[in-house]
Amino acid sequence: MWKKLINTEHDIATGVLRIMLGIVFFPHGAQKVLGWFGGYGFAGTYDAFTNKMGIPGLFALLAFAAEFLGSIGLVFGFMTRLAAFGIFCVMAVAVKMLHWQHGFFMNWFGQQKGEGFEYHLLVMAMAVALMIRGAGAYSVDRMLAEKK
Predict the structure, then answer these.
(1) Alpha-carbon span 121 to 125, nearest angstrom
(2) Residue 128: enclosing H or E segment and its boundaries?
């Protein structure tokens, strides 16, 4: 099982995809966990998730872990399939709970009440590609797989 989880080819395109997804997601996780980039930090975000949005505490913690730890894992290529799965789940829930009602398009011109889900679909597609292909080139997963 472990070998299947970390197995990956030396694929540079997959490595680029993985690193970029991790870089894009790190600020989102850091907002929630550390309060960086204008975020509310752990306590504020946890309160918003559980009390205002009605998300069970365990699922809020899993979302924080997926975005924060998952993004770091993606940058380094460690446990890539698991990290990508977590981010996929966060995006699927975000579409269902928050973005579906606002339609497909992002709110580029401030003419709708919220953001659509086009960005989320791109992230979900990237995550699925990483779940299928693994970490790719220059990853901890590849280094560990070669040692086995």
Answers:
(1) 6
(2) helix 118-133
First to last CA, the chain: 13
SS3 label, residue 105: coil
pLDDT tens digits for range 35-68? 999 999 999 999 999 999 999 999 999 999 999 9
All structural domains of the chain with their residue ranges: 2-147
- Burial (CB < 10 A; 0-12, 13-18, 19+), residue 148, is exposed
pLDDT in tens, 100-148: 888 888 888 878 788 888 999 999 999 999 999 999 999 999 999 888 6
Q: What's the rounded Cα separation, in Å, for the pair 123 and 126?
A: 5
Cα separation, 32 vs 40, in Å, equals 6
